[in-house]
Amino acid sequence: MKQDFIDALRRHVAEALRQQDGEYVRGAIKIVDAHNLCFTSLPHQGTDESQDIHALSDLVRIDPDTMRHEPNEGRIQSIANQHFHSR
Known about the structure:
Layout: H1 2-18, E1 28-33, E2 38-42, E3 53-55, E4 60-62, E5 69-71, H2 73-83
Antiparallel strand pairs: 1-2, 1-3, 4-5
Helix pairs in contact: 1-2
């Protein structure tokens, strides 16, 4: 389940990046339901972790080879860990 969440959030971040029209990353992603892999994009929102909203700029990194934005695997993994604790 955790890996499914990671894969789904990575795809959502990548799609949000494809929709960007400038060099600055804007918007945010709200995790509506982590267990059912439901996300929504918010065009003009910053991070509010108490509401499970993450600024897109916090979810990406610059690839040093291509100098393009890409999903930040470490940050996505960290968010997944918050939602899917090992018991």
